[in-house]
Design a protein that fits this description.
By secondary structure, this protein is α+β, with helices and mostly antiparallel strands. The protein has five helices and nine strands; from the N terminus they run E-E-E-E-H-H-E-E-H-H-E-E-H-E. The strands form two sheets. It has a five-stranded antiparallel β-sheet. Helix 1 (44-52) runs antiparallel to helix 2 (61-72). The longest helix is centred in the middle third of the chain and has 22 residues, at 110-131.
Length: 210
């Protein structure tokens, strides 16, 4: 796929970037239920499509963002969304691969507990690495949902996009902030950016600046 490269000068650093299409995936599945309607899906987009199919549920941009944030987060407890007074739909993370497995409560309890412990330990390591002060050049890689216009219809759609940048920073979290701040001024403001702690942001230290 063709790559575009551009250079932007900032007061203390230069920043290079490239857009690439990439489809993201989640390691855990999502179970959704609203009264007698239920589904087991592999990612947030499929979960949102299911919600759109239910007339009672008004799927707002905030609701879409919240479902995506929940799917990408390290949170494992079930989440309940209020539709109106005393009416909710529920979303549950599960390692079950089929609805039958989920109904039989396979890969939900003991396996999930171990997964949660591993995720918590990994989360602490990620946070420590993000906040480690180390002045120099960083390369950051961000997978985000970019809003683009479809020329044939004039409508908008989310497009999975990879953004790679090299910049001067003092830590991984500053590298993330600089990339996101840069993108917010150059893409549709409805575009969605992942958490710095999630798997959709990666960085590496390249060396001291000169």
């Amino acid at each position: 796929m063709p790559r575009s490269r551009s250079r932007v000068r900032a007061p203390f650093a230069a920043l290079f970037f490239v857009f690439l299409r990439e489809t993201s995936s989640f390691s855990m599945n999502l179970y959704l239920r609203y009264f007698d309607k239920e589904t087991l899906v592999s990612n947030a987009d499929q979960a949102i499509d299911f919600l759109h199919s239910i007339q009672d549920i008004e799927v707002t941009p905030d609701l879409e963002n919240d479902v995506r944030d929940y799917a990408e987060s390290d949170v494992f407890y079930p989440k309940r969304y209020k539709i109106r007074s005393h009416v909710y739909f529920i979303v549950i993370k599960t390692m079950a691969q089929t609805m039958l497995d989920f109904k039989q409560k396979k890969a939900v309890h003991s396996s999930l507990s171990k997964q949660m412990a591993d995720k918590n330990n990994m989360g602490d390591m990620v946070i420590n690495r993000l906040n480690e002060i180390r002045l120099g050049w960083y390369e950051g890689e961000l997978d985000f949902k970019r809003v683009v216009v479809i020329p044939s219809t004039g409508k908008h759609e989310y497009r999975d996009t990879k953004f790679v940048a090299q910049c001067k920073a003092e830590s991984g979290i500053e590298c993330y902030s600089r990339i996101v701040d840069y993108l917010r001024t150059r893409v549709d403001n409805r575009s969605q950016f992942p958490s710095a702690k999630g798997k959709n942001f990666r960085f590496k230290y390249l060396g001291l600046w000169k």
